[in-house]
Design brief:
Length: 274
Amino acid sequence: MKRVLALLFLIHVNVFCQTAVETFPDDLSFQPFAANVLEPKLGFNFQTGGNELSLNIGNSLDIFRYSFQDNSQLTFGADLFTFTLLRGEQNFHFPVDAVDYLFGFNFSYKKKAGNTGFGGRLRISHISAHFVDGHFDGTHQRWRDGRNPKVYSREFIELNPFVKFSGVRVYAGFTYIFHVDPQEIKKDNYQLGFDYFAVGILSESITPFFGYDIKLIHLDKYTANNSIVFGIKFGKPSGKGFSLFYNYYSGKSINGEYYDVNRKYSAIAINLDL
């Protein structure tokens, strides 16, 4: 028994010596997917040809990071987002129509080997959705478009594995919703996408990027949500900076109070990466 305990102790010491532990590092180990709508964002999406825009305020934070000598990293972090739908009106007024809140935890792993890499992220999160006073028609004393507030809440587990080669990152995704209101929303979603950051083509601080994401949402039937982005990031390619980009979206609304409403729009977006 003593020999077994001694062996386990030596294994533990060996692993610890090969591991660098960081708390609250400045950057994210797992970079958000460029075209995925459910990522931390801090900025605006101005829809072209319409009077709606979105204000996104969110962040992800690595709390613990374990870096190993084989160029791999294991992290534990937290997420806190809001996705807000606004309308543009005269006199520079932007009444808030709807807002969604997300908070949760994430675990990620990645490993780099030369020009390639692989890894994945596991998220456990909660989302709730609400109408705000901008959705209420004060003149007629009723909710706009006959859509009254409803209870919308979901708790889910999301897994996104990826592979990366020559700067192109390809990923898949599976979401299991273990609790949801309203009950007509089914519990499985599927995802596929890729992104590419052209690091070093223009300069070290100006990086063109492109991404595409498709997600199958399961309501009474499966519906495809498509998101395309392309633009330029100023600053560190995988760190702090800001992005200016074009976004095309088609599919069900990302705001839970409109979960059964089809949306299709183009937008010019500005995002800060903290």
